[in-house]
Structure prediction request, 419 residues.
Amino acid sequence: MRVALLSYRSKPHVGGQGVYLRHLSRELVRLGHTVEVFSGQPYPELDEGVGLTKVPSLDLYGEPKPFRNPHPREFRDRIDVEEWLRMRSGAFPEPLTFSKRIVKVLAERVDDFDIVHDNQVLGTGMLQIEKLGLPLITTLHHPISFDRRIDLAAAPSLKKRFGVWRWYSFVRMQARVARRMRLILTPSEASKRDIAKDFGVDPARMRVILLGVEERFVPPVKPRVPGRILAMASADAPMKGIGTLLEAFAKLRTERDVELVLVTKPKQGGRTEQLIERLSIGDHVRFVHGVGDDELVELMGSAEIACVPSLYEGFSLPTAELMACATPLVVSRAGAIPEVVGPDGLCADLVRPGDVGELTAALAALLDDPARRAAYGARGRARVEELFSWRSVAEQVAAAYQDVIDAYRVSTDSTTEEK
Prediction:
């Protein structure tokens, strides 16, 4: 099959969507399919054999000047103007404006593809793709309404709450578009349930396909660093639960020689840095970001314990990657995380999300129990080998492609006959 894979931003280190796009595209190519990625900035890192067509935005959130005002000569069309105006009003316009741009691009290349795969853009422009003559499938990792709910609860003032509401105004659009999709792929039963509840999508039009773990994630060959606790967060946001972990770590520091390594880039002067200063733990917390894949694997394997304190996850790739590194875990009983780690006590201890006392006790108990840590690590590694393969993901996605193509042909043939 000839696949057009769409993503409004795709760099792997920005978040799980970029990781999904990279590994899925590589494995589809290995299966013999042709894949061309269409992406806005930040552009993806792709493997050999995968094509890339850049669909540039104004890149209004790029470093070193996020929320910038473009020079007038940067504006190419009305879509650029709309993107800038929506940004200035506090909204996040990229899903909408990318969807409008991609329709114009695909309109000139209809004969080049058998199917279009939307990686959670869900902008209104997506509704025009099948009218061009191309069947469409989408992946919805989780409903962003959960991010919005958590960020609204964390907002300290009415003004901040309004800002959060405005930023997430695209969520209603995504829900409307999702309800009209022919088939939605999602990575967990938790996400499927939440998409049905929050977005009103018929569960019969959703298919769960677990995500994979790259083969480079393996157990360490060096000894783990005593007392090292590691956590990963693709964003410095309330949903990742880092505040809960910092408070639990501060309590542990009163009686133990432990260090915390956070794989994330904190917002300068943001809530995470402020909390670290208030708790007086700055000398024992280290941030790591921008590292290569091999360095990341080594870092994951260096910790005695890893913690995933998120308040919600649609899958949590870092959890599965840590399991592949045989790193014992303490995780939140939130979203799809229990699906990833299996029953409590298999390869992780599960705690209530946001509960500092329960998290502190679980971390302390696991630090004191080397035999249980070793057992968790071994069982976590075995679970990854059994369930989480990108090859399997690609095979299942390709089967879904064929189902959508067949259904599209039937619907278009029926329409032709009626005319």
